[in-house]
Design goal:
three-stranded parallel sheet
Amino acid sequence: MRVYWYVVDSIDEWDLSNPRTRQYLGERFSDDREIRARWMAEASRQFAGTGADQGRIEQIAFDMCFDDFARWYDKKLTILAGMNRFYHAVEAASDFIEVCRCGRWKVDLLHKTLTEKGLDVWLATDMMGLQPNYDTALIIAPDSDPIPSIDYVKGRGKQVGVFDFQRGAAEGRGRAFASQLKLSADFVTTVFESDLVRLGIATKGEGEDFG
């Protein structure tokens, strides 16, 4: 058995000390009515009674917004550095896990969002290109993007299984919703959060779904 682990190892680079970066983000801030209104309200609240005019309040609002997403971006850089250290440790400890560093976080600083890029394309390419090396592929994926590749390799005699991560415990759960990804697979293995916590593999998280 060999495990190919497709991971994000890089992030869009933003030099927040560059005046041109600040100017660009300032223009986006002014164009985004929702973001601007939220920070204008916060700046007006904090500086009420100081005599600051509208122009000054708007500058303060952007400064507050800029500092907020700078802290957010620095946190993501720290998280990514930790992830990369973990990947190196995994590779050093195992001979059968190959970490495929092919993903990138695309950053929207103003809205503080990350979008993964590159993982699906690399996974699809390897599923098709490595066909001579496997009979069964076990896929862990958060969405339906691998379906075309699954259908392709199944058409060439390969078996494909999907891991389905579920929050909570198996007890008391109703019938699970059959996603398109599950329907495309030959078999599905469900992994419950409670089992991972009990075995010390994971800690209990928040939200409604894994992934």
